[in-house]
Amino acid sequence: MPATVRQVENALALLEFFAARKRPATLADVAGHFGWPRSSTFNLLATLAEGGWLYEPRARGGYYPTPRWQALAGEIAEGEPAPERLAALVRRISAQTGETAWASAPSGQHAVFLEVAESEAGIRYAARQGARVPIHLTASGQALLSQMPERDREAILRKAGFEVRGPAAARDLAEVRAQIAAGRARGWFRSASYWSADLGGVSIPVAVEGRVFSLTVAGPLFRVAEKEEAHARLLHRAVAEAFGADHAARTLTAMHVLT
C-alpha cells in the first residue's frame, strides 16, 4: 500500500479511536493502541495538531480532536440531499396541508433543512433549503434529539444557549427535556412561537436509509394552531403510506406512533 494511502488510513483510524475513547490520548496511548512506531505516531499527531485538527486540552495531558471536525461535518451535512422518497413525501405533505413542509437532519447544535416545499399562501412559513434552526428550541430539532442516544443528546444539550429564542420557547434545559419527553409520549413535537414569533408547526422523526430525519409542517399560528393534532396524524399516515404501516414502530425508539 502506498505510504500516502497508509497515512490517510491511519488518520481515519485515529478519528475512530477518539470517537470511542471520548477523552484525550497521549502519544504513548495512541502508539500502544495501534502498535505504531512512536516516531510515526508523533509525526501523525504533530501534523494534525499543526493543521488545527488536534489540540492539547491540558499541557502534556494528551491530544483531542478540535471542534473543527464537527464544523466541517456540519458543512458537509448541509449540502447533502435528502433521500428521494423523503423529498417526495415533503412535497406531498405540503400539497395536502397547504402549508410549508420540510425534512431536516442534525448538524451540531442545529437542525438543517435538507428538503423544503413552501406553501403557496400569501402569508406562510418562509423556509429555504440549507436553513438552520436551533436543535433544542424547535419541533424539528426536538424530533431529531428524541431519537439520539442519551449520551449524544446530552452532549448537544450541554452546549445549548437560550439567549436568542422565540417568545414562547423553553427557557432552560429542564424545559427542553420535558418538551422532548412530552413529544415522545404524545407522538409528535410542537412549536408555537418557539423560534419565530407567530409561527408554529408539528414534527415527527422518521428513519430512512439508516438515518433519522425530522418531517415538519408549519405555518402562521392563526392557521395551524388548531390543526396541530390533525397535522401530526397526517404526518404519521404519510410515513406509513410511503414506507409501510409498521415502519415507525420498527425504526423509532421510545416513540408513540399515531394510527
TrEMBL record:
Organism superkingdom: Bacteria
Any one Gene Ontology molecular-function term assigned to this protein's record: DNA-binding transcription factor activity
Pfam families: HTH_IclR (PF09339), IclR_C (PF01614)
Annotated InterPro entries: GAF-like_dom_sf (IPR029016), HTH_MetabolicPath_Reg (IPR050707), Tscrpt_reg_IclR_C (IPR014757), Tscrpt_reg_IclR_N (IPR005471), WH-like_DNA-bd_sf (IPR036388), WH_DNA-bd_sf (IPR036390)
Residues covered by the HTH iclR-type domain: 5-67
GO biological process: negative regulation of DNA-templated transcription
SUPFAM superfamilies: GAF domain-like, Winged helix' DNA-binding domain
Residue span, IclR-ED domain: 68-249
Keywords assigned by UniProt, alphabetized: DNA-binding, Transcription, Transcription regulation
Annotated protein name in UniProt: Transcriptional regulator, IclR family
